[in-house]
Amino acid sequence: MLSKAAQAPALEAFSEKYRQYFPRVFAYVYARVGNTAITEDMVSEVFERAFTKAESLRSEAAYATWLFTIARNVIISQARKNGRETVVDPEVMQEIAPHSASVESEVLKQEQMQDLARMVRGFPQREQDIISLKFDAELSNAQIAQIMDLSEPNVRVIIFRTLKKLREMLATEAAR
Fold it and tell me: How far is residue 128's CA from residue 148's CA, in Å, rounded to a whole number?
């Protein structure tokens, strides 16, 4: 156990990492879960695990990859406990919409976001995870490759093909 003098710098370093990564971890988990309250609980668990297992981190440069691996594992554990049910939280969708936009444009944007989320949920789990890590967590392809245990070129190809499928689905839906 660390002395109080040694704990202060460790707590300060963790606090800085928390401030730096919280928005991205929250966005990643929320994109997978779709419920604010559950996301808050899960993100708390992610950072609790990161704090208690900090000594297992091999390299400070790998912190983001390590943290998002923990987040992914928490999401998988939650999915096993609760099944595959995903609920979209309408309150968060309203918070995301710009306040200056008209009511009609806000409703349209919410519907589009829900359609997009529905389409992505129809993809295989691996594609969902990669898309979420790329756009919600804003990780690099190299970081995603480490988390998903894939090669970086493979991640790039999966992202390209998944986005192409998504564009085709959006075009088909727009044509209706």
Answer: 12
